[in-house]
Amino acid sequence: MAAVVALPDDVARVSHELPLRANLSALDNIALIPIYQRHFSVGESNQQALQLLDQLGHADIASLRDPDMTPAQRFVTKLARALILKRPRLVIDRPGAMLYDVSYPAFIRQLAMQATMAGTWEIFDFSWNRVLYNE
Amino acid sequence: MNKLHFKVGLFAAASLLLAGMFVVYLLHARGFFEKTFHLQLAAASADGVAPGVPVVFSGIEIGRVTTLGLNENGGIIIHAEFLGRNAKWLKENSTFTLDKPIVGGAKIRVDSPDLKAPALPDNATMLLLTSDISKEIPALVDRVKAILDNVEHLTRKDGELNATLANAKTVTGRMTGEYGMLEGLLGSPEKARALTDSLDKTRALITKLDGLAAKADQWLFAEKGVAAQTRESLAQIRLLLNDAQSSLKKADVMMTNAVEISANVKDGTQDLAQLRAEIDDAVRKASDLVNQINRKWPFAREPEVKLP
Amino acid sequence: MNFLAASIESLGAKVVGWFTVGYAMAAFLARAGLLLLEPATWNRATFDVVVKQVYFTAVQILHVFLGYALVISWLIITIILSTARDFGLTEFASEMTIRVLVLELLPFLTALFVALRSGSAINTEVALMQVNSELDALAHCKVPPMQFEFLPRLVGGVVSVVTLAGLAGLLALLMGYLAIYGVNTAGFEPYTRTIAKIFDFKIMAGLLVKCALFGLAVTLIPVTAGLETPKKLFMVPVSVLRGMMRVFFAIVAIEVVSLALKYI
Question: Measuring CA to CA, which residue among B71, B294, B266 is closest to residue B181?
Fold first, then answer.
């Protein structure tokens, strides 16, 4: 666990400890990053965010806010937010805490296939959940 | 169209418009778009005058004092500024009076008796009077008049002085007559001396009045010396002073006669005592008046009356 | 002896606490100010958030606020006028009305209004963001929360309080005119003169600065109070309570200082 918390800067984390901004829509949450990190215009950033959501097969959740989403939708948004950071490593931290309503190994696998990302995906999970991934 | 942005835009536009209008209105109210009219006031004393002291016309503020300064001759120059639109109340015959009420701040009062008079040019120099003076000019005139009446009364043909003199003559006649009661009617020498004193006082008063009249003359004929209204008041006082002088001189002559007569007869009758008292009173009043005029008129002290 | 030492210690703790709060606020303000000077801050996104803030702080409540300003102004003007008439001081009534309402009461009430409505909301929101780790998430994404969460709130607060106080003041000026002279143009000249006499450059600048400080106080203090919240949900009400207390003290202090500067 300590390893997860002390991750270096080049890691994009998806974790239940890093929630979405509650009063912003999924699209805004994702678009924040191109706007404030790369100084894209609002329209351009929204375009990028929407494209990413579409790629993950969840374009329909763009206008939803955190409380209105299902855990899976929330996870997709968080994942999109981590992906748009364009960091070489992606760490999914204890997916069981976020995806408690789906069989999450399969779900993540499917998302990983849809996403086009150069770097590596890593999943940190409890050892007793290992069996889930072997299914 | 974004409804939220539209509303905020409307709000911002309306607020900016209102703010802009208010600023323009304020600038208009404060005379930003008008020429400023300047006026210099020459005063003998700047007591109570400070920058910001209002200049009022008919109780309404039309300008303010901006700076105070001295000219080469040590006179005080007060600079005042007026909005262009208020300059029309300043006429060539306007008087400027420093008002220092018991309650409230000092202010400079403008009186324009004739609004058809030609307007004052920009940067004109006017005389600033002190309010107690201007208020007191009519009062002083009244007092001079009263004294003159008194003197008149004493010196009129059937007046007490004449009567006294006649009386004195009769007494003298009587005394030098067959009854020869000269010794018996002798008054004390002090009484005669008192009368002589009164006479001296009268003469001193005449000298003082002469001096005052000369000063008044100086003021009356000085180029652009004083405002027209003040000039009139001064002229009036000048006349009264002349009057007083001649009357007092007449009284002087009569008194001299009377004293001579009384000295002759060594008479101490009631009539003469009363006369002396009255003359004394008149002299005292006149002296008072002269002192007052000397003390209060700003131009009585010569170094300060020089105008720029 | 123990008692004395304990009380001195508690006093010291309080003083240190106040200094910490003051320092945090000053540091926050300095950071916000520096950020404000950076041209990169002024992008479309920040502007949009400012617009949103202005909408929620000022536009949304405009009708309620103006109605309330109208009632208060009308009452105060009527009271001043009738009292002035009773004491034979009618000539001072218009000046008194303008001074009391436009320069003092309305800006103060505007600040209270915005503090109660937006200040408390901001405090709660920031406290919840802090408790929920939303700020940590932003930090992880390297999105500066100052730029898109806090600075727009400060700017929005200042703009809103200045604008609302200005609008209420204009409304009060209009009401004052109507109350004194009625619906005609006869009083325009004397009223203009009174206004010209009161609103010199110093007074206008002072009013503007005061309103801006009010705006800053009702947003800056809630934001910093929210940021101080420990990560426990039950601390949110405590944070709001503390923040609002500080806002109240700050508003009163600004008003007192402005009065002192103006009249002493």
Answer: B266
